[in-house]
Amino acid sequence: MKFSEQWLRDWVSPALSTQALADQITMAGLEVDGVEAVAAAFSDVVVAEVVGKEPHPDADKLNVCRVDDGSGEPVPVVCGAPNVAVGQKVPFARVGAVLPGDFTIKQARLRGVESRGMICSASELGLEEETSTGILVLPASAPVGEGFRDFMGLDDHTIEVDLTPNRGDCLSLKGLAREVGVLNRLTIEGPDLVPVGPTHDETFPVRVEDGERCPRYIGRLIKGVDVTAKTPLWMVERLRRGGIRSIDPVVDVTNYVMLELGQPLHAFDLANLHGSVVVRLAREGECLVLLDGQEITLDGATLVIADERGPLAIAGVMGGEHSGVSAETRDIFLESAFFSPLAVAGQARSYGLHTDASHRFERGVDPRLPREAAERATALLLEITGGEPGPLLEVASEPHLPHGREASLRSSRLEQALGKSLPRDEVTEILERLGLVVESSAQGWHVQVPSWRFDISIEEDLIEEVARIHGYNRLPVRRPQVRLALRPSHEAHTPLARLRQQMVARGYQEAVTYSFVAPELQQVLHPEALSPTLANPISSDLSVMRASLFPGLVRALQHNLNRQQSRVRLFETGLTFRGELDHLHQTPMLGALVCGPREPEGWAGVREPVDFFDLKGDLESLLALGEPQAWRFEPGEHSALHPGQCARILHRGEEAGWIGTLHPAVRARLGLKVDALLFEVRLDALTQGRVPAFTPLSRHPEVRRDLAFLVDEELPVQSLLDTIRAQAGEWLVESHLFDVYQGRGVPEGFKSVALGLTWQHPSRTLNDEEINQLVDAIVTESRQHLGAELRA
């Protein structure tokens, strides 16, 4: 929220500098995001009156004006503004004045006519960002000769406060003034809020069908308003400094009261209301054109303001275009209501909206404020636009209105939490200055919470209030005295940090993506996946919970490729979600994606593309950290992976993940022009390891035999290795594949697989007869079960 420092000081003005005031607000828990001057620096600009105007003799679009700047004699000025007129009070830059942008005003001759100064527009003085079409016209009461900065109060600052969601009571000048007053032990002095007496007895019927969502609704009929009246400059300036653009006097007044008191209001054109105002839930299929011109289709959970013909506004969010105030409006119906925070929360976002009204109603507005705000707005409207007010019409559902809350604070608990003992009188004073009704007891204090403090309900809330008003910087700094026992370390467990380090050592970078993905992307990669859909997503492309890490990694790949990063190596750890919300399985996973050249670009490198076995090697380096013999790879089919370059990953015989190349059809649908390889493995399996154990080294020599088998080209080498290990006996210490060959000398449809086998006995030397028996058993078993023949 933005607010003017001068406006705040009209309510309460502590003897603090601007920066000290901002620091005090921050230390009270209302963080100040920034402090900015409300206008750029300029000098020697005064209030002047146009006392003469004649057409320029040599230019159709210029006028020669005479300006009284209070110096004695009228000053000749050539002005091209279309709205300049005799009798206007205007900002006038004298010769020698310096305007924003370091622009110095000099005496000049324009088309042969002398000009000594410049009549300024709002944009030329830095009061508007857009270029103004005419000069800035000041009120007739502006004193001639007074400095323009002083008259406009431009030696002011805009302070922007970033409020936490629980402090909706500070989304107004009144709320901030209460805080500053409490912090500095000052009383606040707001405007006199005197009820406006009705001048006629006409009302417009109001019917509230949903008292739970709208417990209080106040309306007032004001007849004969002049919407073409000009909003006072002081109000326009306060709105500008609060970040709101002036539109017309009726809208400006409702915005002004919202900034001042914190109560959003809305004005309807009475001519466009039919029958009665009805507060109800929308009917399915009803449409509404909003004030911003957007047409939306309402759903049945949306609270609307309607008449007998249909919806007029989304309650607490935005009004409709058809019923809004226009230049032809003569009679208005002023609305001031209290909507339950739960009735408004999420409604604006569900339609892609965020308004000042919804921002406040979602956080909670004082339920007693609507009448006060309606009276304040009525008084301002009558002052600016004129009109005849009717009586206030109120419809309230007492059972659904928030009732007074009570809480207790124990002195012993307060001392324990703050680390110091505060005098009882000081605590009582702090609570009373906050607006709480305090009753002391032997154990501490019992308080009644004011209607505007939605965030106070339990003892901890009261402790927080006492701490921040007393001053966090005044609390003692104490280090807790504890005995920290070492946590047991599971030697058979591979920590996640070790897995991350290994991936980084292999050249990967860690990615962190949302747990929510676009439903279209998940459908492409995992058409069979079932995961929850969010009722209130951050955006439409983050509306389902991910069933795999693949969608997030693929999206990160697209992001990098779009920025000319051709070599991508990413990994991610996180939860995946499968099943319905009531039976949701959350599985921690580790996934990785590679794309592009195998090695970084270099003078000695060959730019070969990364392939399946590169990625498999990186994964096997992770498996080696735990229990490598517990893992197996077998052919499989996955909807997102290439059928010929895809493997199911098994851990102790159970499926633990997938590895493969992105399916060409999937790649085409995603618009990727390069191959990408991915794997995904369950973290609980990856982190399972074994306790290292020492095996004595044998003093006896090893015996090695190399065997080359002719096998069917479709036979997995793993099947051959499994058969060999089963027949090789207990003294086999190593078996590895060192060659696969197809070509001359090998029959078509077959391949030659060469394996190196090493035996070693721990206590004696193995003889040839023992080794030959084992080799014969291997050859016989391979021939019988796999059709393998020993190659000559």
From TrEMBL:
Keywords: Aminoacyl-tRNA synthetase, ATP-binding, Cytoplasm, Ligase, Magnesium, Metal-binding, Nucleotide-binding, Protein biosynthesis, RNA-binding, tRNA-binding. Signal peptide: none annotated. It catalyses: tRNA(Phe) + L-phenylalanine + ATP = L-phenylalanyl-tRNA(Phe) + AMP + diphosphate + H(+). The keyword Glycosyltransferase does not apply. Belongs to the phenylalanyl-tRNA synthetase beta subunit family. Type 1 subfamily. The keyword Kinase does not apply. Tetramer of two alpha and two beta subunits. It is found in: Cytoplasm. Residues 698-791 form the FDX-ACB domain. Binds 2 magnesium ions per tetramer. Mg(2+) binds at D455, D461, E464, E465. Its cofactor is Mg(2+). GO terms for biological process: phenylalanyl-tRNA aminoacylation. Its EC number is 6.1.1.20. GO terms for molecular function: ATP binding; magnesium ion binding; phenylalanine-tRNA ligase activity; tRNA binding. It is an enzyme of class 6 (ligase). This is Phenylalanine--tRNA ligase beta subunit. Pfam families: B3_4, B5, FDX-ACB, tRNA_bind, tRNA_synthFbeta. One of its GO terms (cellular component) is phenylalanine-tRNA ligase complex. Residues 402-477 form the B5 domain. Residues 39-149 form the TRNA-binding domain. Its main location: cytoplasm.
